[in-house]
Amino acid sequence: MIKIQVETVDSWFKDAIPLIYAHWQELGLDIDLEGCIDIEKLRTLEVAGLWATITVREDEKLVGYLVALVSPHLHYSTSPPMFIVDMYYLMPEHRNGNGVRLWKFAEVLAKQRGCIKMYASCKVHKDHSRFFDALGFRLSDYAFVKRI
Amino acid sequence: MKLEEIDKKQFPAHYAMHAMQRLEQVIADNSPCKQVTPETRLDSLGVDSLEFLALMLEVQKTFNITIPDAEYASLNTVGDIMRHLA
Predict the structure, then answer these.
(1) pTM value?
(2) Chain A residue with minimal CA distance to B80?
(3) Residues of B with CB below 8 A from A108's CB?
(4) What ipTM does this complex have?
(5) CA A9/CA A11 separation, integer angstroms
(6) Hey, is the C-beta of A96 within 8 angstroms of any chain B C-beta?
(7) What is the DSSP pairing of strand A2-7 with strand A118-119?
(8) Cβ of B46 under 8 Å from any chain A Cβ?
(9) pLDDT at B85
């Protein structure tokens, strides 16, 4: 039985390391850099009410997650918060529709927390444009990176 | 008898039986899975997320219902969809 819920940074992270590693292996671009989640910073954001951790579990086993910054945008600091998804992942064997459920859950949570906008992204080499389009997102930005 | 012709308040069991048949047909038309039971997991239908969304839209259109976004997280099985039809 798949269950999607809000958890704390700590309850997520204690089970998340194998998934984060699989996530990084599947999608990471900077594989020469050490992957290292700044858990202390996430805890600080969580305590400040600026972080959301959503988990997907099958029975008790963590099979996916979506984590997001929940904060007024730096450019619109007097406006209600925005839901800026930092990363999301589902184990490959759990992608048959669970992504829809995860993102719809995230949208409901974002609304509950007063957010007026969600930000999502995907890798160019793992294009989810049609998925986000079907969920009602619109393409708004291209992002460019350069190793220096 | 067509599903629309059954008074679901007066004949709930009869309606549920026909609704399940219709739902089976919608799933068969929109996924590789040709036989389901109320216990069949939705993530075992053999559809990806886009196909799952299309299937859910078709279910809502067929039965003229709206499944709220908040309900998606608790949709695990075909039976969970059935509960929205009752």
Answers:
(1) 0.90
(2) A1
(3) 69-70, 73
(4) 0.80
(5) 6
(6) yes
(7) unpaired
(8) yes
(9) 83
Residue A100: closest CA among chain B residues belongs to which residue?
B49
Contact B31, B53 (CB under 8 A): no
Q: Residue B33 is encoded by which pair of tokens?
A: 């899975």
Report pLDDT digits (tens) over A17-62.
999 999 998 888 888 888 889 999 999 999 999 999 999 999 999 9
Q: Do A96 and B53 touch (CB under 8 A)?
A: no
CA–CA distance, B7 with A111 (Å, rounded to integer): 36
Please count the CA atoms within 13 angstroms of the CA of A57 that sit on its side-chain side. Answer: 15
Q: For residues A8 and A46, is the Cβ–Cβ distance under 8 A?
A: yes
Name the CA dihedral angle for B84, A138, A126, A15, rounded to a multiple of 10 degrees: -50
A82-90/A61-71 β-pairing: antiparallel
Using CB atoms and an 8 Å cut-off, which of residues 5-34 of chain B contact chain A? Answer: none
Order of strands across the sheet that contains A2-7? A2-7, A51-58, A61-71, A82-90, A118-119
